[in-house]
Design a protein that fits this description.
Elements: E1 2-7, E2 10-12, E3 18-26, E4 31-39, E5 46-52, E6 57-59, E7 67-71, E8 78-82, E9 91-99, E10 104-106, E11 110-114
């Protein structure tokens, strides 16, 4: 089993920055991909970006150039650095992991609110 715990959400003004963390525990050797989804009120969950075990990252067009996903090692937390935040970035952000078995695991979500 793999468990994911997010942290770092909160309230930030437009143009500001915030860093989310996702710590994995359990059978982390099974993780192939980790990443982030966001879900705004009344909308479906959308992919923000991901990072593979080899360190390859992908991003949604809406966040390219503003958000960065990183990790220091295969066993370290995954970070989502968000810059130049906009009110439309307001959402619950969920960390996810795709295991080598094809199973997905999700964190509990952390709220990000961008407002003046």
């Amino acid at each position: 089993q793999v468990q994911l715990v997010e942290s770092g959400g909160g309230l930030v003004q437009p143009g500001g920055s915030l860093r989310l963390s996702c710590a994995a525990s359990g059978s982390i050797f099974m993780i192939n991909v980790m990443g982030w989804y966001s879900q705004a009120p009344g909308k479906e969950r959308e992919l923000v970006g991901s990072i593979t075990s080899a360190g390859t990252t992908t991003y949604a067009d809406s966040v390219k150039g503003r958000f960065t996903i990183s990790r220091d090692s295969a066993t370290s937390p995954v970070y989502l650095q968000m810059r130049s935040l906009k009110p439309e970035d307001t959402a619950v952000y969920y960390c996810y992991a795709i295991l080598s078995t094809g199973v997905s695991r999700w964190g509990q979500g952390t709220q990000v609110t961008v407002s003046s």
